From TrEMBL:
UniProt subcellular location: Cell membrane
Recorded coiled-coil stretches: none
ABC3 transporter permease C-terminal domain location: 65-183, 537-640
Keyword Transport in annotation: yes
Subcellular location, principal: membrane
Organism lineage: Bacteria, Bacillati, Bacillota, Bacilli, Bacillales
A family per Pfam: FtsX
Membrane topology value: Multi-pass membrane protein
Membrane-crossing segments per the record: 21-41, 61-79, 113-135, 155-177, 203-223, 229-252, 293-314, 530-552, 587-605, 617-643
Similarity section: Belongs to the ABC-4 integral membrane protein family.
Name the record gives this protein: FtsX-like permease family protein
Keywords attached to this entry: Cell membrane, Membrane, Transmembrane, Transmembrane helix, Transport
Length: 651
């Protein structure tokens, strides 16, 4: 066979399989486009310089590049496996008419290279056209209002070319390996493999089916229990993943098939046309689909949890910043190169604010820095408090209220702890516990009754716990240890619109430990903006990939079932009657992984919701899940549309 004949066969094969290739081709284009955009934003020097986010962007986009490559690798290789299985009979026919395995391998590899090259060229063009839009979105998310000019990046082009060359090499090798190791009879029967797997005995099916649900339930319970938070946190997380993933596989492999068997038995096998087109095909292909549905469900849950968490962080930036930066500005006694006491520097800052015409409330705040030891029946081991001495800053609740903080006022002899750095460990079961405060020559015994909703002084989160006490208790402790008194001065503006201007004025007065609200908020917003940008695009890439995989599988099954549709049409059944059963089948194929993935992600987000101290994240999580479900719905509609065309053309 000449090279010209082989190329002619390649082009003829691609034209013949065009209806199967178009979504795969556009999915590849989408992958190239996303990868090129990520690489462009990562390597463009003007973006890094003008946004002043070089460290965050470099680390974030490098991690995203690796993850995106992993997503594309899984998607492309999985999609190629599906197409090779779909074309097994065609490969067998080529060998029957005299082509050697080497010639067939070359045909498939040339076809794969042409398809990949076309997707690469179109994807680069699309990336160049829309990268500006993604840049504007990124700038909006990080709160940057300046103009950034984006230019073509040679480094991004080279990185994208290398990545997709690797993908083409991997998929081409898999094609070569499949052709080399396949027997002719296997190629003609490949599409029927695993359609009629040996089912476990009824009792064993029931036990395994119940076990799958029980393992998922145990994973949910353990992830949200107090047993999760101990010195073996990492091992506990792996244990939860193992239980949930194994349980999910058993649900798809055994539980659902077992339930379908019960339904069919209860109806004495009379499941009707809709059941014959939905329940029967699903039962026959459950073994083949169980692994892929488990992978898709698990990764869907991880993607949903990641996207929901990132959006929740972005959504709650302002409220959460207020948790650990309660005052607009705070001047303390710490900081090299800062001349004068906190009162003197506060007076200078106040004069600067007066000169700028910015209204404010200034409140001196004193605190006592003392050694403390804690004892309690339910103190978490991870804190390491039992038997150890820690530093505690004791504050007078009267001064804090005068500064404008709305906080709980403890009773005499009691205290409230404020420490957002360890708040996730301070569950309701921990309280109350006893605190012994070393004040001079005496020890003051306090009963710590609850966790405060926010810090009371900026900059100490995770460093020193803050205890608020009543005025009477504070005066008594201060009298016993007057030398441990420290001075802070809090400023809160009358109009929050002046924060940006006041923050610029405050820069020379900022200490090493204290934070001003506006600067911290903008830094957090930029960090969370980059995180949601990355997770959003990774999630979108994963959604398109998994949605396409499900679509490819259903296209192949539609072709395999075409004879059945022809028979049904010849018997007089209308397209609408046949489509009722097909819609039920697609509701399972797309709906069950989506629903289980949503439930998995809800429990995953719930297990880490302790991070959000002052924000209800129900709304952002719901929005993320609705967007995810909408994209899956689009693929389900496309699949049903393809089936309708297949059924309509069957007669």
């Amino acid at each position: 066979m000449t090279a010209l004949t082989l190329v002619d066969l390649v082009l003829r094969s691609m034209r013949k399989n065009l209806k199967h290739y178009y979504l795969y081709f556009f999915a590849l284009i989408f992958g190239v486009t996303l990868f090129f955009i990520f690489s462009t934003l990562q390597h463009d020097s003007s973006v890094v310089e003008q946004t002043d986010l070089s460290a965050k962007m470099a680390s974030g986009f490098q991690a995203a590049t690796v993850l995106l490559f992993g997503i594309l690798l899984i998607f492309v290789t999985y999609a190629n496996d599906l197409f090779l299985k779909r074309r097994s009979r065609e490969i067998g026919l080529y060998q029957l008419v005299g082509l050697t395995k080497g010639a067939v391998s070359r045909l498939l590899i040339i076809e794969n290279i042409l398809l990949g090259a076309g997707a690469f060229i179109v994807g680069l063009g699309a990336g160049l056209l829309v990268s500006r839009l993604f840049l504007l979105l990124l700038m909006k998310l990080v709160g940057y209002e300046g103009f950034v000019n984006l230019s073509f990046s040679g480094a991004a082009f080279l990185q994208t070319a290398v990545v997709f060359a690797v993908l083409i090499v991997i998929t081409s090798f898999r094609m070569f390996w499949k052709v080399r190791r396949s027997q002719l009879i296997d190629l003609f029967n490949d599409d029927k493999k695993d359609e009629h797997p040996k089912q476990p005995k009824p009792v064993l099916s029931a036990l395994l089916g119940i076990l799958g649900v029980a393992m998922i339930g145990f994973g949910y319970w353990f992830a949200n229990s107090t047993y999760m938070l101990n010195a073996f946190l990492l091992l506990n997380m792996l244990l939860v993943l193992a239980f949930v993933i194994t349980g999910t596989y058993l649900v798809f492999r055994v539980t659902i098939g077992w339930l379908m068997t019960l339904v069919r038995k209860n109806q004495n096998g009379h499941i009707g046309l809709a059941g014959a087109l939905s329940i029967a095909p699903l039962m026959h292909r459950m073994k083949a689909n169980a692994k892929s549905l488990t992978v898709i469900t698990t990764l869907s849950a991880m993607t949903l949890a990641m996207a929901g968490f990132a959006y929740s962080m972005y959504y709650s930036t302002e409220q959460e910043t207020r948790v650990w930066v309660p005052h607009d500005f705070l001047i303390d006694e710490i900081g090299e190169g800062k001349e004068g006491t906190s009162e003197e520097r506060a007076a200078k800052f106040a004069a600067d604010l007066d000169e700028a015409g910015i209204g404010y409330v200034m409140q001196p705040i004193t605190y006592l820095e003392l050694n403390a030891s804690y004892t309690g029946d339910n103190l978490p081991d991870l804190l390491g408090w039992e038997g150890n001495t820690v530093t505690a800053n004791v504050f007078d609740v009267r001064q804090l209220k005068a500064a404008g903080l709305d906080i709980e006022e403890p009773k005499a002899g009691e205290a409230v702890i404020h420490d957002s750095g360890i708040a996730w460990l301070l569950t309701d079961e921990v309280f109350p516990y006893e605190a012994s405060i070393a004040a001079g020559q005496t020890n003051e015994k306090l009963r710590v009754t609850s966790l405060g909703k926010r810090e009371v002084a900026s900059g100490y989160a995770g460093v020193h716990s803050q205890l608020t006490v009543s005025g009477e208790t504070y005066d008594r402790i201060k009298a016993a240890a007057p030398a441990e008194t420290h001075q802070l001065v809090a400023f809160n503006l009358a109009d929050q619109k002046d924060l940006a201007e006041a923050s610029a004025i405050f820069r020379p007065y900022r200490g090493d430990m204290t934070l001003d609200f506006y600067t911290t908020y903008k830094e957090s917003l930029s960090y969370n903006g980059i995180m949601i940008f990355i997770t959003g695009f990774l999630g979108l890439a994963f959604l398109v990939s998994t949605g396409s995989i499900l679509y490819f599988k259903q296209m192949s099954e539609a072709e395999q079932e075409k004879r059945s549709y022809t028979t049904l049409r010849q018997l007089g059944f209308r397209t609408g009657e046949i489509m009722k059963g097909i819609r039920r089948k697609q509701a399972f194929v797309f709906g069950i992984p989506l629903v289980i993935g949503l439930v998995h992600s809800i429990f995953a987000i719930k297990s880490v919701s302790f991070i959000f101290m002052s924000t209800d994240i129900t709304l952002p999580v719901t929005i993320a899940m609705m967007a995810y479900a909408l994209i899956y719905l689009i693929f389900a509609v496309l699949t049903i549309g393809y089936y309708r065309k297949t059924v309509h053309a069957a007669l």
